[in-house]
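hey m, so remember when u said the tokens were messed up on ur end? i reran from scratch. heres the input so u can diff it against urs
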Amino acid sequence: MLTNLNELFRAGGVVMWPLLAFSVVAIALIIERVRFWYRINTRQHKVVREVLNLYRLDNVVGAMDKLQKNADLPISRIFLSALQLEEPTPEEFRLALESEAQAEIPVLKRFQNLFETIIGLAPLLGLLGTVLGLIVSFASLDVGDVGGEKTAGVTAGISEALVSTASGLVVAIFTLLFANTFRGLYQRQIASIQEYGGQLELLYRRRYERGDRAYASTR
């Protein structure tokens, strides 16, 4: 198996090296993003539900305690940015939620540009390998030597063209599959942040309207 892979790698020509680098980078980024989204999807809903219940019961200190223990979650940092304000108006509270939500967007979209770069360049590198392989084929082509020694050069060039093209497409398709998955998770997360943020803002407005001044953590 390894021998076949090595032969394919050598057959693909010089463009196989950058494609290999792209593959390694893509796999490393995919692993990081899978761990990131797994952490959010397995813990966020439970944490938010408990925090909102505590806040609904006027246990502000308990709610902030829970958020601080889960500060690795974006939604926790968003909630904390608003709850740590000193007696804000509802408008200030909402702006704090929105500002922190905007600050979390780069964290949620992390590596997206790199994914797009790999998706765009991998097929182009495969195409470059195709061109280089065809150049080798035509350079080795001798009409008067059909079936002779130079035919091996033609075969090698065609092999390089096909292998490099297929490798570029495989890298791009593999990366695109995960990039689209992460993009969908990002869009769902933005919707969840808006939903959860709206619930917290509504609870805060009710506290504010009834004159409860114990908005944030006690110091």
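this time it looks ok to me. The two ends are 65 Å apart (CA to CA). if urs says something different then somethings off w ur setup not the seq
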